[in-house]
């Protein structure tokens, strides 16, 4: 039976733009109260106003998910303000278009701090509230990626953070099943958000990770699938199903995958060299 979302609450990180913002608005449209966290206050304020305009309570908190104290302060304040904690979406994250060997140790650590440790900070802080909320949804969700299954050139470290999130979600799903807690991982393909601009700014020229157009979607599509998952929890959400099939084939045929990635990378590098001449 589908669960009712009216007057339930969800806490979302990375809600100042893209998938997080679209999900906050889709949850508000479904009757949920939302708390949003990110670093840019003006964007959060605007997103909270848009969510309130849909008739629900909206709360925001400015902070960095890499800071566990800030995350705990957010979750405490959100629970106090909204009166309950039903679900949390650990969504904040970023990529960098840069080959593995060109990425400094500090940059690798920085990406793991936000994408992987940040996810853990959020889940750890929210779980005690989610488990004790009367009649709650008891749902933890994590925005991983279709790259949880594939390490493309120019995005190897980013893919490692996304695989890490996926594996943590898999383990938690079993560890928390006895407590009635649902754990879902979300695996979007390329999504039209600020993500690729941020990845380009952080990366090296010629390493942009933009996928082909057939693997691009809008954040609202991901948000709709997340709301559907809140109603009927699933282990994994792949908003574009062909990507699930492609990821499965890539795992079954690693030799073909290696060939295709090598070929794609060589073509991209040849284009960069031609542009530089
Ligand atoms: N777009 C894609 O193609 C795609 C595909 C698969 C998976 N994903 C994943 O989807 C998630 C959302 O990305 P998006 O596509 O919506 O990109 P986006 O528009 O760039 O959104 C990223 C969000 O994360 C927040 N954020 C980044 N670093 C943060 C930090 N240290 N602390 C708190 N918030 C932080 C950003 O807000 P502030 O800058 O205001 O802090 C922003 O709200 C990410 O985890 C990404 O890896 C994206």
Explain the overall architecture.
The mean pLDDT is 95. With 277 residues, the protein is of the alpha/beta class. The longest helix is centred in the middle third of the chain and has 28 residues, at 105-132. It has a seven-stranded parallel β-sheet, sandwiched between helices. A two-stranded parallel sheet has the order 7-8. Helix 1 (18-29) runs parallel beside helix 2. Helices cover 52% and strands 13% of the residues. It is globular. The chain has helices at residues 18-29, 41-52, 68-82, 105-132, 156-175, 195-202, 219-231, 241-252, 254-276; strands at residues 9-13, 33-38, 58-62, 87-90, 139-143, 182-186, 190-191, 216-217, 236-237. It has one domain: NAD(P)-binding Rossmann-like Domain (Rossmann fold). The protein is built from nine helices and nine strands. The site of NADP nicotinamide-adenine-dinucleotide phosphate has 31 residues, from helix 1, strand 7 and helix 6.
List keywords for this structure.
single chain; 277 residues; Rossmann fold; seven-stranded parallel sheet
Task: Give a short synopsis of this structure.
With 277 residues, the protein is an alpha/beta fold.
From the structure provided, what is the oligomeric state, counting identical versus distinct chains? Answer: single chain
Question: Would you tell me the structural class of the helices and strands?
Answer: alpha/beta
What is the tally of beta strands? 9
Which homologous superfamily in CATH is the superfamily? Answer: NAD(P)-binding Rossmann-like Domain
Low-confidence stretches: none
């Amino acid at each position: 039976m589908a669960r009712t979302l009216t007057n339930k609450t969800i806490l979302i990180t990375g809600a100042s733009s893209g998938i997080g913002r679209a999900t906050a608005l889709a949850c508000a449209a479904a009757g949920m109260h939302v708390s949003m966290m990110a670093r840019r206050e003006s964007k959060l304020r605007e997103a909270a106003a848009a969510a309130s305009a849909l008739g629900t309570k909206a709360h925001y908190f400015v902070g960095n998910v890499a800071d566990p104290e800030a995350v705990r302060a957010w979750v405490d304040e959100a629970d106090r303000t909204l009166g309950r904690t039903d679900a949390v979406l650990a969504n904040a994250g970023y990529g960098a278009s840069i080959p593995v060997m060109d990425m400094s140790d500090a940059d690798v650590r920085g990406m793991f701090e936000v994408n992987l440790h940040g996810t853990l900070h959020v889940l750890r802080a929210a779980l005690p509230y989610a488990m004790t909320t009367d009649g709650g949804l008891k749902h933890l969700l994590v925005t991983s990626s279709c790259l949880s299954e594939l390490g493309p050139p120019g995005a190897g470290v980013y893919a490692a953070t996304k695989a890490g999130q996926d594996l943590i979600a898999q383990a938690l799903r079993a560890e928390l099943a006895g407590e009635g807690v649902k754990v879902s991982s979300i695996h979007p393909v390329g999504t039209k958000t600020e993500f690729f601009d941020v990845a380009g700014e952080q990366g090296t020229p010629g390493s942009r990770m933009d996928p082909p157009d057939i693997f691009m979607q809008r954040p609202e599509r991901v948000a709709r699938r997340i709301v559907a998952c809140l109603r009927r929890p699933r282990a994994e959400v792949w908003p574009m199903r062909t990507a699930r099939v492609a990821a499965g084939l890539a795992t079954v045929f690693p030799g073909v995958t290696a060939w295709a990635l090598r070929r794609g990378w060589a073509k991209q590098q040849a284009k960069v060299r031609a542009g530089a001449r």
